[in-house]
Design goal:
It contains eleven helices and nine strands. The chain is α+β, with helices and mostly antiparallel strands.
């Protein structure tokens, strides 16, 4: 067992850390306040190779391992979780899903634009009446002679307005239940694709979360991913990897808040000495540091299992559950350490606390992760 990062992994970590400080930190408060999509920043992330890190170089990707991706996600998330969720969806869900299960033609057609940042991908699973219950798809894709006719509404779609390429999960045969669900690659500019309202969110306010409507959209049969009825399995397999990305995001939010709190505790004085010398603060920092190390190791384990071709569904669920739950606690503690300053936007930690909350909800709520974990350990 080796706990040492490779030279390449350390370089990726350092380069991403410097990039986040230089390119993402300036303006992050304003982007959050105004709900501004970080278009320029995402393009620079793409130029760094962050939008297709794990994708094969054959399609313009970096061909990197999952550990490298976790390291990069943590560093980006320390500064701007809105940028990191755009990066996560594009990498873990869209690029990975197409490369893993798509045809050669689908890979050649879509992946180069997605890895280069020319286009952004979105994953359309959740619906107004089907969030955690992914089997209850109301969106339909009825098979016709040479196409499927797609109708329905998806909501909570990350990059909903900025994305050009959508992976859409839809029901084609209700009599078959989840085995009648298909997955499709849908282009935003096709007739019948309508972008709904932008959500006014608590956190990750820089990412554009929208509902997306499909009204009699003709999807060519060659845009179905894998065989008929594979959609539900596709969604579950893709989300299993996506959870590692969100775990890394939660880890980054937590470690970013901890680093700010640690620095502040050394500078802020009360009762004649830095507050870090008061046991109440010192112990809080000790708990934060220990928890973050544990969270990082869970992420690394899940990433390592994925890279080794092992079943990572359990480790991914554990990593997401642990990282998300503790990101909420650590960011709250960081605000507490800052006192009144932590309650104002200028000091960043209140934003990190707001951003942390969504990691307990999207790509499978904490309760869903507990279902996955309990089923695994009880079988």
């Amino acid at each position: 067992m080796n706990f040492t990062l490779s030279e390449e992994q350390r370089m990726i970590q350092q380069a991403t850390r410097e990039f986040a400080q230089k390119e993402l930190l300036p303006g992050v408060i304003k982007r959050d306040e105004n709900q501004t999509f970080p278009k320029e920043q995402v393009q620079k992330m793409a130029e760094m190779g962050l939008m297709g890190m794990m994708c094969s170089p054959k399609y313009g990707g970096g061909g990197m391992d999952t550990i490298s991706y976790i390291l990069a996600m943590e560093e980006i998330s320390k500064i701007d979780a809105s940028c990191s969720v755009i990066m996560s969806v594009n990498n873990s869900l869209v690029c990975w899903g197409i490369e893993k299960y798509g045809t050669d033609n689908q890979k050649d057609k879509y992946l180069p634009d997605l890895t280069s940042g020319n286009k952004i991908g979105a994953f359309c699973l959740s619906e107004p009446e089907a969030g955690s219950d992914a089997t209850s798809q109301s969106t339909t894709a009825i098979e016709k002679k040479d196409h499927y006719l797609l109708n329905g509404t998806k909501n909570w779609i990350t990059s909903g307005n900025s994305a050009s390429t959508f992976l859409v999960i839809a029901q084609s045969d209700v009599t078959k239940g989840h085995k009648g669900i298909n997955a499709f690659i849908v282009e935003k500019n096709w007739d019948g694709v309508v972008i709904g309202k932008k959500e006014n969110k608590l956190g990750i306010r820089g990412s554009d979360t929208h509902s997306v409507m499909f009204n009699d959209v003709k999807v060519p049969k060659e845009n179905r991913i894998s065989e008929e009825g594979f959609g539900f399995k596709f969604a579950m397999q893709t989300l299993a990897g996506g959870r590692i990305g969100i775990a890394a995001q939660a880890l980054g939010i937590a470690s970013g808040a901890y680093e700010l709190a640690l620095q502040y505790s050394k500078e802020r004085k009360s009762f004649g000495k830095p507050i870090c010398q008061h046991q109440a603060i010192a112990f809080k920092l000790a708990d934060m540091s220990t928890t973050i190390d544990a969270a990082r190791l869970l992420c690394f384990k899940a990433g390592w299992e994925k890279d080794q071709g092992l079943d990572y569904r359990l480790s991914g669920a554990m990593a997401k559950l642990f990282c998300a739950e503790h990101a909420m606690k650590i960011t709250t503690d960081a605000v507490q350490i800052h006192g009144g300053y932590g309650f104002v936007k200028e000091y960043h930690v209140e934003r990190l606390m707001r951003d942390a909350k969504i990691t307990q909800i999207y790509e499978g709520t904490s309760e869903i992760q507990k279902i996955v974990i309990s089923r695994s350990i009880l079988n």
